[in-house]
Amino acid sequence: MSLTGNAALAGVMGWPISHSRSPRLHGYWLEQYGIDGAYVPLAVAPDRFGDALKGLQAAGFRGVNVTVPHKEAAFRACDTIDPDAKRIGAINTILFGDDGSVQGSNTDAFGFIENIRQTADWPGGVAVVLGAGGAARAICVALIDAGATEIRLINRTKSRAEDLSHEFGNIIRVYDWENRSDAQIDASLLVNSTSLGMTGQPPLDIDLDHLPASAIVNDIVYAPLETPLLAAARKRGNIIVDGLGMLLHQARPGFEAWFGTAPAVTDALRNFVLEPK
Ligand code: ATR
Q1: Confidence (pLDDT) at 277
Q2: CB of 195 sitting under 6 A from ligand 1
Q3: Which of 14, 29, 184, 269 is close enough to 210 for a disulfide, judged by CB 3.0 to 4.6 Å?
Q4: Whose CA is nearest to atom 11 of ligand 1?
Q5: What dotted CATH number matches 109-245?
Q6: Is the shortest distance between the CB of 161 and ligand 1 below 6 Å?
Q7: CA of 189 to the centre of ligand 1 (A)
Q8: pLDDT at residue 1 above 80?
Q9: What distance in angstroms lies between residue 195's CA and the mean position of ligand 1's atoms?
Q10: Which pLDDT band holds residue 172 (cuts at 50, 70, 90)?
Q11: For atom 26 of ligand 1, which residue has the closest CA?
């Protein structure tokens, strides 16, 4: 990497941040496209978020990604907030406007659906979503916009799923965690947005006997890349979509806004991001 005095600067703010794959991801694109720019990890303590944001803007950064625990604080710090971020209630991408404005957006819903579309043609219909955390909110937004007729939301803590159904309306139907197998009848898509199945976490205990063979199965967990859920789904003939693509696709709008080039998600990028750091 060699930078000039005109280099475009961006980064990711989180606490901790050392686990983030975003610098590697954006760094790959910067090099691939020969862009005079840098994307850096920024370890920002929760109580320093506002100061750090102002400092980056004052220092001429084009913008930043925002990750845990700053996504809600970012919401309060932005002058403008795009419609998806409003619906999701969190911001993951900030652009500093030429007029001095702080513009917030959320690209997780975009990343989720673009990841599905890169592998499969989801026709809409009934979707089953496991989990009701921040990721599930973005997934519900994406599914509503992509033609879901019903979203069956299933979470260990039922009240969190009910909160989402109150926000998003009748399209969301809440099922008990115990009924997660029966809820798959007639589904065209099954998504795991819980942390179950991730390396170091308990496995996701679910049987797929009621899931139509034509359904797409997606896990947002990407470590391991093929979770036990995806392995079981593949074995019975379902189309599977792993979770790495959501991370890669959600990064595209930010990269384009800061660095001026629309980047591509390729197998080479996937392999690069997966390699040990
Ligand atoms: P994210 O923003 O990634 O969605 P989160 O808000 O912490 O993260 O949500 C994690 C999800 O995994 C939640 O739906 C959580 O269920 P609860 O709302 O009941 O906590 C789910 N989850 C985590 N551990 C789980 C477990 N052992 N069994 C069932 N669900 C679990």
Answers
A1: 62
A2: yes
A3: 184
A4: 194
A5: 3.40.50.720
A6: no
A7: 19
A8: no
A9: 6
A10: very high
A11: 196
Q: Residue 179: is its pLDDT beyond 80? A: yes
Query: Where does CATH 3.40.50.10860 sit in the chain?
Result: 8-107+251-274
Positions of CATH 3.40.50.720 in the chain = 109-245
Judge if the beta carbon of residue 156 lies within 6 A of ligand 1.
yes
Q: Is the pTM value of this prediction over 0.90? A: yes
Across the range 200-218, mean pLDDT stands at 97
**174, pLDDT greater than 70:** yes
Active site (catalytic) residues: 71
What is the Å distance from ligand 1's center to 54 Cα? Answer: 33
Question: How far apart (Å, rounded) are the C-alpha atoms in residues 6 and 210?
Answer: 57
User: Has domain 8-107+251-274 been given CATH number 3.40.50.10860?
Assistant: yes
